[in-house]
Design brief:
By secondary structure, the protein is an alpha/beta fold. The protein has seven helices and ten strands. The structure holds fructose -6-phosphate.
Length: 235
Amino acid sequence: MRIIKTDSYEKMSAVAASIIGAQIVIKPSSVLGLATGSSPIGTYQDLIKGYNDGVYDFSHIKTINLDEYVGISGENENSYRYFMNDNLFNHVNIDKANTFVPDGMAADKAAECERYENLAGSLGYADLQLLGIGQNGHIGFNEPLDYFPLKVHEVGLTESTIQANSRLFDDESQVPRTAITMGIGTIMQAKRILLIAGADKKDIIKEALYGKITPQVPASVLQLHRNTTVVVVDE
Ligand code: F6R
């Protein structure tokens, strides 16, 4: 595991974008596993800048996102599909047909989970998977549990995650209570993993990277991945 320390959110974002950018340059048909949330916004802005500067070409890139809320459609501005369009896809030359996010409105959630897992497999899983981390160590929406869920599944959000995510909704009651997420196994299939964490994640990063490997701290499983880079803000 490589750990890169930076001293600001801007530098963390620039480093992360240059790692993803290098992946795009080296393999223009890469499958990028992507995340939403506050952590990757600066990274996406830097990727857009690289695209505008003519450095990155997304025309052959495919993306597969980690997760999506259940019960809100892609047109809802709180959905992760909307977030991705708004923060990245609408600003680069990616073919939206090559961008994948779970369908939170699917009538049959179990079938949607199976479809998404098979989709990840048929793409050969991510060449590079970008991750953020929750204050409780979650990755994707894999919350602390007594086992590591392997595949794409529907998950109930913990109270702490609902509260953390409520900042983006009008009020807490509107935060969906379940989501569809890649499993830990789906994430671990990625050839490379890039975890980014701001200064507010210092304690959980320490626990996840240097503590016991346990499903109570889902990100701790990354200690077992053979090609993980972590970019942190360590002021
Ligand atoms: C988002 C995701 C989550 C976030 C995590 C950190 O797609 O899967 O695991 O990465 O909750 O969120 P932020 O970056 O908002 O602190």
